[in-house]
Amino acid sequence: MKWITGIFSLFFLFFPIFCNASDGPAGSISRLKGTASIIRQDQVIPAQIGDKIYMMDSLKTGRDGSLGVIFKDNTLLSIGPQSEIIISEFLFSPAEGKLSIVTRLLKGTAIYLTGIIAKLSPESVRFETPVANIGIRGTKIAVKIEDTTPRIP
Amino acid sequence: MDFSLRTNLNDQGGSHLTYKIVFIYWCSIFFLMSCAPRKNLIVLLPDDNGQVSTIVVENKGGTQILSEARHATEIKAVDVSPTAPVSMKEEEVLKVFREALSALPEPPMRFLLYFISDTPRLTAESQRQIPEIMRAIKAHKSKDIGIVGHADRVGSREYNYKLGLERAVATKNILVSKGVDPSGIEVDSHGEDDPSIKTEDNVAEPRNRRVEITVR
């Protein structure tokens, strides 16, 4: 029996390697204004038009910044100034039935227009905020997380 | 704040009290900053064709469905149900989301080019479409172009995968020869597996001998 447990634990140890269907870029930055950066594994990279975006990247804008992304499935996403969003999940291989797009807005404003994933598999599309989940069946939405910076009287 | 400090300098006797007030004042701001729930606003917008779909907003507190243009819901906390939908005016939406709206990319443009049977050579008609595609790439200032090649079902699956790839590469070469940066072009093949027109195996179908170009 021991060798079965061994094989199982080896499998789970290497599980992340088996399921790296997310290697390719999720999309690219196609619009940019002011300061904006990509945060990739604790590295802060100044954003530029044409930069590729990968699953698990965060996008962040400064006071004067805004940026727009086109995903591989033609989903369109933009964020306004002082905003931050994480691309938590992106899987787009229709042939293998792997479809998923999950984004999480942490602060600021965002516009989101669904693409092919929403057409093929609406339940695989989710837009999250710290206080709610939004299921989207092929449409355009706007989301704002109120700024809590206090106004000093 | 300036005022209280000045009072403090003039009134030596009450100095401690003044400082304490200032301190508490800042404390409460930091306290509010860290604890105040960040209210979320979610608005359903019509898409570029004016069509409105449905969104479902949910959290631990409950669920709210939005299905009309510019209907909005507010959420105060994760365990407080989203508010009933409220209609927003177009100007209000533009005011709150101006920068984000203007940063939204144009939808990608798609083009189809067709090929002569069993070759990576464009049909005469498709060749005439190249200038239009070049104009779109320039207008979009696109650095992200996807080219996917396809074939009909005459021949084996493997053969058609290769034929699709040859067609995609041939199309890439045409664009590059017209001045498009090759680093922004991605080629792929779907072989015979992603037809425009579904057919039985080994059926010749000119409409499936194609490449799809997506200009993002």
Helix content range of chain A: 10-25%
The ordered H/E elements of chain A are: HHEEEEEEEEEHEEE
Which outline of chain A best applies? Answer: globular
Helix/sheet category of chain B: alpha+beta
Rg of chain B (C-alpha, Å):
30 Å
Separation, N- and C-terminal Cα atoms of chain B: 52 Å
Features:
heterodimer, A: mainly beta, 48% strand, B: 216 residues, 4-stranded mixed sheet, 6 helices
How would you describe this structure to a colleague?
- The complex is a heterodimer of chains A (153) and B (216).
- With 153 residues, chain A is mainly beta.
- Chain A is 14% helix and 48% strand.
- Chain A contains 3 helices and 12 strands.
- In chain A, strand 10 (125-129) and strand 11 (132-136) form a beta hairpin.
- Chain B has 216 residues and is α+β, with helices and mostly antiparallel strands.
- Mean pLDDT of chain B is 84; it is low at 1-35.
- The chains are: A mainly beta (153), B alpha+beta (216).
- Strand 11 (132-136) of chain A pairs antiparallel with strand 2 of chain B.
Secondary-structure topology with pairs:
The complex is a heterodimer of chains A (about 150) and B (about 220).
Chain A: H1 2-13, H2 15-18, E1 27-33, E2 36-40, E3 43-46, E4 52-53, E5 58-61, E6 66-71, E7 76-79, E8 84-93, E9 98-113, H3 116-120, E10 125-129, E11 132-136, E12 140-145
Parallel strand pairs in A: 9-10
Antiparallel strand pairs in A: 1-4, 1-6, 2-3, 2-5, 5-8, 6-7, 7-9, 8-9, 9-12, 10-11
Chain B: H1 2-10, H2 15-35, E1 40-45, E2 55-59, E3 62-66, E4 71-75, E5 86-87, H3 90-103, E6 109-114, H4 124-127, H5 130-140, E7 145-150, H6 157-177, E8 185-191, E9 210-215
Parallel strand pairs in B: 7-8
Antiparallel strand pairs in B: 1-4, 2-3, 4-5, 6-9, 7-9
